[in-house]
Prior knowledge:
The chain is built from 6 helices and 10 strands. It has helices at about 15-25, 60-65, 70-80, 100-110, 140-155, 220-225, and strands at about 5-10, 35-40, 45-55, 85-90, 120-130, 135-140, 160-165, 170-180, 195-205, 210-215. The longest helix is centred in the first third of the chain and has 14 residues, at about 15-25.
Amino acid sequence: xxxxxxxxxxxxxxxxxxxxxxxxxxxxxxxxxxxxxxxxxxxxxxxxxxxxxxxxxxxxxxxxxxxxxxxxxxxxxxxxxxxxxxxxxxxxxxxxxxxxxxxxxxxxxxxxxxxxxxxxxxxxxxxxxxxxxxxxxxxxxxxxxxxxxxxxxxxxxxxxxxxxxxxxxxxxxxxxxxxxxxxxxxxxxxxxxxxxxxxxxxxxxxxxxxxxxxxxxxxxxxxxxxxxxxxxxx
Length: 234
């Protein structure tokens, strides 16, 4: 179970606290069990500083707390504080990665969902970077047209999300795609072939919606499966 420790302190040496965190990261390299650390100041009291540190488990947190480097850094942190810091130990019972959820819904809409709901996951000025297109797609209407083109060519196409990583305002998704070519696609007459494709997309979000996306996928492999190009055999 993910474990989070919250450290509260009062100090007017916020910059020194940040440098201390940098020092801790450097000194515990290769030994550190923490996965995420945040230092924040209270908007109502700039001297109220909160450090939030996340670990895979309570046991991993305790293992790190026993490192001599951690003890030394803690002593330096106490010296920066106006009074001894307080600790809150938390077991995480729910952790929603909201940006990831938006991106997963985006894929659900592409593959058989209601295209009229694209505006619920995309900003009005959504910018789509696709190497297969001569120009970038900008706006929800152009995005809808692109999806319809794929739906016409592969009415049963579906995505499988193999990996998804989110950090800050960006989400990277590694996906697999399958469909049956029963309609015209980019001037290619239906072949009734079952095809598959793999790729990735990095999406940037703003205010809870996707504002930009960068695709990278095996379009050459798709064309080979449709019989349009021959790939050399190794």
